[in-house]
From TrEMBL:
Transmembrane segments: none
Domain Peptidase C14 caspase as annotated: residue spans: 5-253
Annotated organism of origin: Streptomyces achromogenes
InterPro entries tied to this protein: Caspase-like_dom_sf, Metacaspase, Pept_C14_caspase
Ranges where the record places region Disordered: 629-653
Gene3D superfamilies reported for this sequence: 3.40.50.1460
Name recorded for this polypeptide: Caspase family protein
Pfam families in the cross-refs: Peptidase_C14
Length: 674
């Protein structure tokens, strides 16, 4: 293990008229003591308390102390104190901040005349500077991030860590390093934040000692966590503890993408186990799994849906679903109750939804084809968690079955004398190229493919047409010219053609080579009163899915969110398919909710039989689950959040077709290059 460089900043004593705190210094001292004891290598802490933590002092310590971390080291920044927000002043930031405001840490001298807070844009840049040197970087922020609530709503004995913005903070903002361009690279640090952007962070006495509610919960989760627990694991446990204390405070994690820094062990290191597909945790309403209606579970008939604890070495424990909400499912343990202090990895082991029906056919009737079909049936019967049946698939012998999605697997000889499996949709079209089926490993790969296609189809068909949120968010797709974005004197939004698709054609670069079309994609919240959370899912014809274009932001009433922070979205045909007349399809699925959702289930890699490590690497149950992890999106500059849990939600799907024109096909030459 490398060295852990840790900077702890705790501020209780703020100058008048700002209200002081009582537990911030306690927070950082307790955190330094616990993390120093847990560090598996050298631990280099630095504490800035009260008056030591001026804005310039914190910035200098971030650069000098955390800046000493290099490859193999961990750099941790922990702040406990007041937080605030104020209006964004730079035109660039006003376009890319979905709420139009900066969030900031209030340092010891910030409230004084001429003082300044440490704004999120500046703090994020400082952390990224450390990460750019190769260190693993994490930040824990226990403070308020918005001015949406007042002290009048705070109960007696509970203090909100919020400071109202000073009038002089806005004017010099452009001179304080807040000049970052839109479209900065993906964050390389992980952030654990005490609450959403419009929420207060609270502190109170615990056994007579004042602490931040979030810090107290997080440290308890770290103590209870087992070896190798990730940031996602400890945040999930802390989230439930905070919710039990304060229903109006929702800790969040950034970045939410699976396989990123959030899935590294707390304080760094190498992940030694497979990431949990779902997490079971104990919250204010009892046991719950972070999987709900928007991820595919049915709220009408949850009986029969269950999850199984999958932690290495754990005795099998089953939890059964009793109620399904938009973002989570309430469950009851069967048998011994798990440890309430921890989050537990679980996998879907039974599903109440109609699964995909799979019919296996052997048209030539040969003994070899029948034997291969029998082997595939055997593999599917043991492809679920614990070696049981796959919950997303059901074998059927009824060729006319209309219950749920249907895939047919046609086993037949191939040209090399072996056998192949053709995966065919209900309409007879091939879902993927034929797959080899000459042994058990091939049968497992066919099972993997069936699971992958099922999950993609679930995402593609996800809908809630009766929601009152339907049509409140408009998706605009505009051409982005190569000398700048769309403006009022350039073409307007693209419209679907007669087939309902938006067709985007390659143009020609000055060199004469084909040039892919560039687009600007915008999400406009047309509601006059509602702040809505949006994610833009890109489904591809290679059966991939991702949220890279718009990974999950809150958009204020009448405001607009921009895909890729208003950078151009380039559509391209993959190199191995690029030729005149070639085309590919994408489907943009907008998901709108009243509150933030778990986006990990919305990620699928492209289906590729020959991907490195795929053949022979099957793990029972690996592709039978919905792949859920704790709710993500905790970066404070990503948009505003609502205090309530998500309730209403809706979707909209926009088909895109990208074409390389063929001079011999006039219909592909029509219209603009977009």
């Amino acid at each position: 293990m490398g060295t852990v460089y840790a900077l702890f900043v705790g501020i209780d004593d703020y100058p008048a008229p700002q209200r002081g705190l009582r537990g911030a210094v306690n927070d950082v001292e307790a955190a330094a003591a616990l993390l120093g004891a847990l560090a598996r290598g050298p631990f280099e802490p630095r504490l800035l308390r009260n008056g030591e933590a001026t804005t310039d002092g914190v910035v200098a310590a971030l650069r000098d102390h955390l800046g000493a971390a290099g490859p193999g080291d961990t750099a941790l920044f922990w702040f406990s104190g007041h937080g605030t927000d104020f209006e964004a002043v730079l035109p660039l930031h006003r376009r890319t901040e979905a709420t139009g405001r900066y969030q900031a840490l209030v340092c010891a001298d910030s409230p004084r005349e001429g003082g300044r807070p440490l704004a999120d844009k500046e703090l994020g840049g400082l952390l990224e500077e450390v990460a750019a040197r190769g260190a693993h970087v994490a930040a824990v922020l226990d403070c308020c991030f918005s001015g949406g609530a007042t002290r009048a709503s705070v109960p007696a004995g509970v203090i909100a860590r919020y400071a109202p913005p000073a009038t002089w903070w806005q004017a010099p903002a452009a001179q304080r390093g807040l000049t970052g361009a839109a479209g900065t690279s993906t964050a390389r640090h992980v952030l654990l934040a005490a609450g959403r952007l419009d929420e207060l962070s609270y502190e109170r006495d615990f056994d007579g000692v004042p602490h931040g509610v979030f810090t107290y919960a997080l440290l308890a989760a770290v103590r209870a966590a087992g070896p190798g627990a990730t940031y996602r694991d400890v945040l999930a446990a802390a989230h439930c503890a905070v919710q039990t204390e304060r229903a109006d405070q929702h800790p969040v994690l950034f970045p939410p993408a699976p396989g990123g820094p959030a899935d590294r062990p707390f304080l760094g290191g190498t992940v030694a186990r497979t990431r949990a597909p779902h997490l079971l945790r104990h919250g204010p309403h009892g046991w719950e799994v972070d999987c709900g209606r928007v991820h595919g579970l049915s709220a009408h008939d949850p009986d029969g849906t269950e999850f199984t604890v999958t932690a290495p070495g754990a005795s099998p424990r089953v939890v059964r679903v009793r109620a399904v909400h938009a973002d989570r499912a309430e469950v009851d343990p069967v048998g011994p109750e798990p440890d309430r202090r921890r989050a537990h990895p679980v996998a879907l082991s039974a599903l109440a939804l109609p699964p995909t029906r799979v019919r296996i056919e052997t048209p030539d009737g040969s003994a070899a084809a029948r034997a291969a079909a029998a082997l595939l049936r055997e593999v599917l019967a043991s492809a679920g968690p614990g070696g049981g049946p796959a919950p997303l698939l059901r074998l059927t012998d009824d060729p006319a079955s209309a219950a749920g999605h249907l895939l047919r697997v046609v086993v037949s000889p191939d040209r090399d004398g072996g056998l192949k499996a053709g995966v065919v949709r209900r309409d007879g079209s091939a879902a993927v190229p034929p797959l080899p089926l000459d042994g058990r490993e091939d049968a497992r790969r066919v099972a993997d493919c069936l699971h992958h296609l099922t999950r993609w189809h679930q995402l593609f068909t996800l809908d809630n047409p009766s929601s009152p949120l339907k049509d409140l968010v408009r998706v605009e797709i505009l051409p982005w010219t190569y000398d700048g974005p769309w403006s009022s004197d350039r073409p307007g939004p693209l419209l679907p053609d007669g087939s309902g698709e938006i067709v985007c054609r390659y143009g020609h670069a000055p060199t004469g080579r084909p040039r892919e079309p560039w687009l600007s994609i915008r999400l406009h919240n047309r509601s006059a009163t509602r702040t809505l959370w949006c994610v833009l899912l890109n489904l591809t014809d290679s059966h991939a899915a991702h949220t890279d274009l718009y990974p999950g932001h809150f958009i204020g009433p009448g405001r607009t969110g921009f895909a890729l922070d208003d950078r151009p979205v380039a559509l391209s045909v993959p190199a191995h398919r690029a030729r005149p007349g070639a085309e590919v399809r994408d489907w943009l699925k907008l998901i709108v909710s009243e509150g933030e959702l778990n986006t990990s289930p919305f990620h699928l890699p492209p289906w590729n039989l020959d991907a490195a490590g795929d053949r022979g690497a099957h793990r029972p149950g690996a592709h039978t689950v919905l792949r859920l992890t704790p709710p993500g999106r905790g970066d404070r500059d990503l948009g505003e959040a609502r205090p309530q849990a998500p309730g209403q939600w809706t979707t909209r799907t926009i088909p895109l077709r990208t074409v390389i024109p063929d001079g011999n096909r006039p219909e592909q030459q029509a219209g603009s290059p977009f």
